[in-house]
Specification:
The protein has five helices and six strands, in the order ββββααβααβα. With 167 residues, the chain is of the alpha/beta class. It folds into two domains: 56 residues; 88 residues, Arc Repressor Mutant, subunit A, CATH 1.10.10.
Length: 167
């Protein structure tokens, strides 16, 4: 199977996107990049929608992504990643709260591991999961990027509420 890849500039640095030609399979910050794969083909075409939606997100014009996604992971990991998509823009949950939402209240650590393995950062908002005490615990792209994303979303949410729009 051919994996397409491209780079996108963003306020949080360069992003590496991967796709199977139909769906987004990966979005990696500079801190997450892995060595290249010989099956990867550099091609911008499969990423037009992703590029547009990311530009809108970073400009504060988009709160929810509509891209087709195809992350590779275990059944549990995919369940966690689907649950991440349900966390509203500008909101946060703890690992424990996410585990409870999944019906697995004793699985906070497993949720944390699945969160850390999320291959489609930003779009699948693993940055919205924080420690039980409100701390910005680990983020594959680095805690500073996590902080930036959360502050960006809070700012966008604040502007929308000031304009009478709902989050």
């Amino acid at each position: 199977m051919t994996i397409y890849t491209t780079r996108v500039s963003s306020p949080i640095g360069g992003l590496r996107l991967t796709s199977d030609g139909v769906a987004l399979t990966g979005l990696y910050t500079a801190g997450q990049e892995r060595p290249g794969d010989p099956r990867h083909v550099e091609d911008e075409r499969p990423f037009r929608a992703a590029r547009a939606e990311l530009e809108q997100y970073f400009a504060g014009e988009r709160r929810k992504f509509t891209l087709p996604l195809a992350p590779l992971g275990s059944e549990f990991e995919r369940a966690v990643w689907r649950a991440l998509l349900e966390i509203p823009h500008g909101a946060t949950l703890s690992y424990q709260q996410l585990a409870i939402r999944l019906g697995r209240p004793g699985a906070a650590r497993a949720v944390g591991r699945a969160n850390a393995r999320n291959p489609i950062s930003v779009v699948v908002p693993c940055h919205r999961v924080i420690g039980a005490d409100g701390s910005l615990t680990g983020y594959a792209g680095g805690v500073e990027i996590k902080r930036w994303l959360l502050e960006h979303e809070a700012s966008v949410a604040g502007k929308s509420q000031a304009m009478g729009q709902h989050p």
